[in-house]
Amino acid sequence: MAKIILSINAGSSSVKISVYSAEQNCTPHQLAETQISGLTAPPPQLDYARGGETIYKSKVVDSEISSQDDAFKELLDTLINDEQLPEIKSKSDIAIATHRIVHGGDYETHTKITDATYHHLEELNDLAPLHNTKSLEIVRSCVNLLPETTNVAHFDTQFHATLPPHIFTYPIDPVIAKSNRLRKYGFHGISYAFVLRAAAEKLGKKVEETNIIALHLGSGASACAIKQGKSWDTSMGLTPLAGLPGATRSGSVDPSLVFHYASDVGKLSPGSTKDLHISRAEEILNKEAGWRALTGTTNFGAIAGEEEDEQKKMAFDLFVDRICGFVGSYYVSLKGQVDALVFAGGIGEKSSRLRKEVTTQAACLGFEVDDELNNKGPADTVTDVSKEGSKHKTLVCLTDEQFEMARGCAEDPELW
């Protein structure tokens, strides 16, 4: 019997819900997709598509929306009140709500959310104060508004549970590290799980035999070395701050830098609440850095399109340099046994210039793109943009975190 699954993805400035009909061990079928964006740049706007048909595009939302939780409630009402979506006539029709939770600590797989699970995830808020809090607010709303629905947490960290100890360990006092859970966790794992499966299919290989260097490049950006179908190394660490810079994140910097940046970095930010404890240091490096600090914009498309603007050109070159640093490092870590370099995420999918510059710099490793194919961009879930005769493939993948979460639920016998 088919069940209705909501895949809920709360971002820093948006909330997206994809609706699927699924049967056990079968590929989920998407019925609708809706999102509210612009939460940090009002007015919020609603997008809604059903069965491939656009119902609303950038519709300004009249009701007051000041948080991800408010956005979720508005989206839920949009779905239930849509007479052309008969699969959801009432809240009781929603069998499963699966939530993207950024930090899952030591969870190695998705899990049902019980009272005990919820309280354990609350304890992880200190590891990801900027990320988990908003998702847990929506979980709380689901529990209250959808009492008959099973809630499931999918974690960005779970894909990286296979990192070997010599990679996930920080060179600090091991007793303190263990008691405070200080280690590399890695993020964007739901995306990487999708990218791995899709790339393996495109390459005609079994997942467990696939070696790729994957790049999830968006307002948050990371790299991942995947060895024999498992995460081997990744650029993000204890939190999503480490590694590549992003729209407002610094990425990796000298750990002492923040103490020279301002004198009050150890104090709590004025933006802290009873549920959100964030220091000025975290606020500076997560919210006041990255493209915004360097160029005044968080729109990477504007940065990539302005070759005459010296500051934007420098920011673009900086990003290429940091990406190539990880590509080279992971190529060596994988001992050159690499099937493909895979670009994903909004920037990875859309910026042909970035793909060209990265592969030009990494041409010594055997990555080259065909200019015509690269400029056309993705034509399918996975598009091969490699130059004919290049040593390794270069692929572009349209990643789909909501689908990956729904697929995980469909394959979980405990949910059926």
TrEMBL record:
Amino acids binding Mg(2+): N9, E401
Tell me which residues this entry annotates as catalytic. Answer: D156 (proton donor/acceptor)
Question: Molecular function (GO) terms listed?
Answer: acetate kinase activity; ATP binding; magnesium ion binding
Metabolic or biological pathway = Metabolic intermediate biosynthesis; acetyl-CoA biosynthesis; acetyl-CoA from acetate: step 1/2
Q: Write down the superkingdom of origin.
A: Eukaryota
Write down the required cofactor(s): Mg(2+)
Give the keywords, sorted: ATP-binding, Kinase, Magnesium, Metal-binding, Nucleotide-binding, Transferase
* Binding-site residues, substrate: R100
Q: Which GO terms describe its biological process?
A: acetate metabolic process; acetyl-CoA biosynthetic process
Site feature: Transition state stabilizer: H188, R249
Binding-site positions, ATP: K16, H216, L217, G218, S219, G220
Q: State the InterPro entries in the record.
A: Ac/propionate_kinase, Aliphatic_acid_kin_short-chain, Aliphatic_acid_kinase_CS, ATPase_NBD
Which catalysed reactions does the entry list for this protein?
acetate + ATP = acetyl phosphate + ADP
Q: What is its EC number?
A: 2.7.2.1
Q: What class of enzyme is it?
A: transferase
Q: What Pfam families does the record tag this protein with?
A: Acetate_kinase (PF00871)
Family affiliation: Belongs to the acetokinase family.
HAMAP family documented for this protein: Acetate_kinase
**This protein is called what?**
Probable acetate kinase
Question: What taxonomic ancestry is recorded?
Answer: Eukaryota, Fungi, Dikarya, Ascomycota, Pezizomycotina
